[in-house]
Amino acid sequence: MCGIVGYVGRQDATPLLLAGLHRLEYRGYDSAGIAVIGRGGVKLHKSSGRIARLEATLPKRGVRGTTGIAHTRWATHGEPTDANAHPHADCSGEIAVAHNGIIENFAALRAELTAAGHTFRSETDTEVLAHLIEAAYDGDLQQAVREALRSVQGTYGIVVIDGRHPDRIVAARNGSPVVIGIGDKEMFVASDVAALVRHTQQIVYLDDREIATIEAGGFRTSTLDDEPTQKSPATVPWGFEAYDRGEHAHFMLKEILEQPETCERTLKGRLDAQFGTAHLGGLNLGARDLLDIRRVKILGCGSAYYAGLAGAHMIEMLARIPADAEPASEFRYRNPVIERETLYVAVSQSGETADTLAAVREVRRKGGRALGIVNTVGSQVARECDGGIYMHAGPEIAVASTKAFTSTLLCTALLALNLGRVRDLSAADGKRVVAALGRIPEQVRAVLRERERVRALAVKYMQHASAFFIGRTHAYPVALEGAQKLKEISYVHAEAYPASELKHGPLALVSPDTPTYVVLPQDDLYEKSLSSIEEIRARRGPVVAITQPGDESLPTKVDDVIVVPHTEPVLSPILLTIPLQLLAYETAVALGRDVDQPRNLAKSVTVE
Ligand code: G6P
Q: Nearest Cα to 161, choosing from 121, 214, 113, 200?
């Protein structure tokens, strides 16, 4: 959510900063700005709209200078206007600040600064930072930033430049990521490695309450209390190709089509065919700890929550431990009862989602044990959990999550196996599940071959203003995710219901204008789901079944059928999800929507 990039070195900063912003556009894209230290001091350019619009408004001869910062925004305080775009300057125009996060006490600070004679030009919380630094400035920029941050409550990742110190950027972090990229006589700074990987693989993450002064030749870090800190550079685990769309029209399509490989990576080295279990070294739990667990609670937001619902079902089925999932965004606010024998599992692709992180903190503050199922290695959720399972799905750039969803389901299946095999799950049953997991990547590949058929369906139904998605038990989370995908990127109104609930309300809205997508695995509840289909057909509602082989007569009972391969019943959500990802994608493309940057949304929601 929002993207920051900074450069200090010998090259012209503007093109580098703009290229970096494009890499971060997936995190926020309602306004953008750039500040570069030129001959006459800081030159600031800002524009509402996409980065392309900012580029179009820059002076023809460019903004020359070798030190600069830039920002792409997802509005929280104040509409996405030119004035509210970052960076924000102080009264003198010497200091410019770009910020991710929220300054909670900005209203009080703004009133104090206004009373002291400062003039504000925007409605943002961020602008107080520029004026606070100005007020604290006494010749030392880092000291002024440190001083300013003492008065601030809230979260921030910030970068600051000052025309009086053209050789440096000061950066600081509290709750919002800041990463320094180490180049050859040049340095980069950003909120996300995606902006840096083209230039360097050597990076350093700032920790919370840490501040850095970055110059072309190096950087030094210290705490906000002025204690020097030592940092060791890490190497970015993915090459820059992982952050590129390649030949694909959209990141979302790339990420959908990548799933055979991402699933393989999630499983790699973790399946134990001999004992019918999973190796999960990062859990930091021995067999006795696993045995002590009496309940599992999965926490996540958006698609991560829906994946958690499917995962909870897997855990109940394989391990026979009560398991459920809850939106992390609600959990944190309801003073939850934390139990010693409950295992809390936070699911997050980014590992940055503020609500999920807050839920982890709530669990741990009250003495609970939290594991993370996280994609981004070293992210805040991963760091704050007691252990966890990395997805290894590679960077997910599209706002609509796809490969992280399927990798999460695989991680929960591995966890379920592990918990099951120290309990009543027999070796034979465990081995069957392990073998089925091993076949998943190839089966995902087979499902993806249905793309043309799904595209035809998307075109057939795209003009309908509303759609239902239904499924029973473990097919219900798949329905929820299918509806979520469709509404997120195509803006078609979509609602998911347990199929059993249809007749308790939503049936009132079923008509020839409302297609229903039925997630229909071949399991014990198949016949019952057919009854729901009959109820819809009796109201002349079109029905599309996403199903598995086994019922030759199904095409006579529904309007359209997409078939995915058989697997162990507990794993079927993984395969049933993929046609619905394709459906949302193809519908959005057919409707001419901006697939990777849907309106009002952002990839990683790092604020409340
Ligand atoms: C945002 C995104 C969703 C995502 C959710 C959780 O709302 O738009 O696509 O599922 O955050 O993100 P996380 O990174 O925690 O999985």
A: 214
Q: Given the CA of residue 401, which atom of ligand 1 is nearest to it?
A: 9
- The model carries a pTM of 0.88
Query: Are 293 and 315 in the same domain?
Result: yes
Q: Are residues 104 and 190 in the same domain?
A: yes
Return the axis-axis angle of helices 303-319 and 476-490, rounded to nearest 10°. 170
Distance 347 CA to ligand 1 centre (A): 10
139 CA → ligand 1 middle, Å: 42
Residues 170 and 101 both lie in one domain: yes
Q: How far is the CA of 605 from the centre of ligand 1 (A)?
A: 7
The rounded mean pLDDT for the chain is 94
Atom of ligand 1 nearest to the CA of 601: 8
Give the distance (Å) from ligand 1 centre to CA of residue 115.
40
Can you give the CATH number for the domain in which 401 is found?
3.40.50.10490
Model pLDDT, residue 607: 64
Question: Which one of 27, 353, 355 would you pick to mutate in the ligand 1 pocket, going by the greatest count of ligand atoms within 8 A of its CB?
Answer: 353
CA dihedral 357, 363, 368, 374 (to 10 degrees): -20
Extract the tokens encoding 189: 């700074």
Query: Which ligand 1 atom sits closest to the C-alpha of 484?
Result: 9
* Confidence (pLDDT) at 247: 93
> What is the CB < 6 Å shell around ligand 1?
301-304, 348-350, 353, 356, 399-401, 601, 604-605
Q: Return the pLDDT at 1.
A: 61
Query: Which atom of ligand 1 is found nearest the CA of 350?
Result: 14
Helix boundaries (H) for 336-475 = 354-365, 380-384, 403-421, 427-448, 451-461
Residues with catalytic function: 2, 603
Q: Whose CA is nearest to atom 7 of ligand 1?
A: 302
**pLDDT of 389 higher than 70:** yes
Decide which of 428, 448, 468 is a domain's last residue.
448
* Same-domain status, 192 and 45: yes
pLDDT tens profile 18-29: 999 988 877 767
Rounded distance between C-alpha atoms, residue 246 and residue 241, angstroms: 7
**Which of 220, 243, 266 finishes a domain?**
243
Instruction: State which residues form the domain around 550.
Output: 450-608
Query: Using an 8 Å Cβ cutoff, are 434 and 276 in contact?
Result: yes
Letter string b/e over residues 129-148, b meaning 16 or more CB atoms within 10 A of that residue's CB: bbbbbbbbbeeebbbbbbbb
Q: Based on the domain organization, do 209 and 342 belong to the same domain?
A: no
- Write out pLDDT tens, residues 544-585: 999 999 999 999 999 999 999 999 999 999 999 999 999 999
Which CATH number belongs to the domain containing residue 136 in this structure? 3.60.20.10
Same domain, 560 and 605: yes
Measured in angstroms, how far is the CA atom of residue 260 from the centroid of ligand 1? 22
